[in-house]
Amino acid sequence: MCRKIVLLLGMLACTLLVPAQESYKFRVQLTDKNPTVYSLDRPEEFLSEKALQRRERQGLGVDSTDLPVCKEYIARLVQLGGKLVTSSKWNNTVVMEVPSEGIAQSFLDLPFVRAVKRVWVSPDTVFPRTENRKKEVKNEWKKMDDYYGVSAQQVKIHHGDSLHQAGFRGQGMEIAVIDAGFYNADVIKYFKSVAVRGIRDFVNPESDIYGEHYHGLKVLSCMAANAPHVMVGTAPEAAYWLLRSEDNDTEQPVEEDYWAVAIEFADSVGVDVVNTSLGYYEFDDPLCNYTYRDLDGKTSLMSASASRAADKGILVVCSAGNSGIDRWKKITPPADAFNVLTVGAVDQFGLNADFSSVGNTTDGRVKPDIMAVGVRSSVSGEDGNVSYANGTSFASPTFCGLVTCLWQACPWLTVKQLIDVVRRSGDRADYPDNVYGYGVPDVWKAYKLALALKPEADGNQ
Predict the structure, then answer these.
(1) Are 290 and 333 in contact, with CB atoms under 8 Å apart?
(2) Where do the catalytic residues lie (predicted)?
(3) b/e map of 404-421 (b: 16 or more CB within 10 Å)?
(4) 331 closest CA partner among 321, 345, 341, 340
(5) Could you give the percent of the chain with pLDDT greater than 90?
(6) DSSP states of 339-399
(7) Based on the domain organization, do 31 and 169 belong to the same domain?
(8) Cα separation of 350 and 229, whole Å?
(9) Helix residue ranges per DSSP H, 185-284
(10) Of 6-15, 147-156, 168-177, 375-384, which gets the smallest average pLDDT?
(11) At what angle do helices 415-424 and 392-409 cross, to 10 degrees?
């Protein structure tokens, strides 16, 4: 995804590089979860009450994929010389850091280890972080006549203003933003009134998540900015979890592992919606690259995790990718996942952006699902001023905020029903293709479609 950020926003300035000590990280695939101290009869021990309520509301149960990875297995791997980096319960994998590849190969002698795969090699250098970052913030604004300020068209192209005027602005909903860092978001006034439920860095737990890459800042602003007549996002009253899974120093498969754990964390704390404007098909080691035949919703670890989210009651909204004019051209995992909303980019007049990645998946599913404004998107700059950026990275959160408001308005919908009404509200719903998908959605139309699905016992609106 680092390469994707570079295409959109430019290379990070770097005048000094710091050497790193050589080590390796391996993904270890386990055979089972026995023995375990956890039980499906006691889900409150590993899922929050909010997470359980979300599932109950959608008629979803807890299953073996929800059980944490076996602690005894992890202990055995540590005894052989590994250091636990992270573990994924949905995929039943762990990532172990080792000083030599030979130690990782010894893991295969254990009866509960199915496979090992190298997913990270320590880079020769790492990018330094900016000191005194807060001094960059100016927060200089000019007000406009329109309530949404510079964001007006990217909201109104979907009739999102109608949903907001009806009182649905995201209140009571929680969105997890899984990204690369949220540079200066803690001191920029666009977010002064935003409810941040928590932050977590899955790459480096000791880092300052507000001192990392600025990509997440810009993504967040599309939804959460709340400065009337300057910039108002698409879900200004939602609450947010800010999660970092992108390692800005390298492009290696372990970032998929970080992402998998991030979405599992989001599930465990009870979020409703996840936005991710990250994607991976090309890595520092070309042998790890994906091909078109891998776009099946399950080959990529990230796509496999995203495909599970709907069965946990979570809606995932993700960017399609920015390879439309590149040799790759296709959507970027996890955009190929099942039961997610993959968002491509159009300009403010609804015309497809030439950089927006195209579908379909290898098994013939229509992708992207929908389109939103990703050309000259209004975003926050690192200095707190108005800025503009191109990319499906910004189309995705812009629509993510609106679909969150739609779900607030229609809480009886399951994830799959929510995706269906959004698709049916698109301006190309009758003739979807691999460029526009189902087209530009009309969330007010989607709201009316959703009303027809409301259980009769709840009455009519």
Answers:
(1) yes
(2) 179 (charge relay system), 215 (charge relay system), 393 (charge relay system)
(3) bbbbbbbeebbbebbbbb
(4) 321
(5) 91
(6) T-EEEEEE-TTSPBPTTS-B---TT----S-EEEE-SSEEEE-TTSSEEEE-SHHHHHHHH
(7) no
(8) 23
(9) 215-224, 254-269
(10) 6-15
(11) 110
Instruction: Specify the amino acid at residue 185.
Output: A
Give the sign of the dihedral formed by CA 150, CA 156, CA 160, CA 164. positive
Q: How many domains does the chain have?
A: 2
Which domain covers residue 96, as residue numbers?
Answer: 21-122
> 288 and 372 in one domain?
yes
Domain co-membership, 385 together with 441: yes
Q: What is the identity of the amino acid at 184?
A: N
Q: Are residues 369 and 445 in the same domain?
A: yes
Per-residue tokens: 456: 């009769």
Please identify which residue in the block is written with the tokens 């491509």.
344
**Cα–Cα distance between 55 and 128 in angstroms, integer?**
42
Task: Place 130 in a pLDDT band, splitting at 50, 70 and 90.
Answer: confident
> Active-site residue numbers?
179, 215, 393
Q: Residue 273 is inside which H or E element, if any?
A: strand 273-276
Distance CA 117, CA 26 (A): 5
Structure tokens at 185: 């978001």
- In the block, residue with structure tokens 């949220």: 182
Tokens of 125: 């250098």
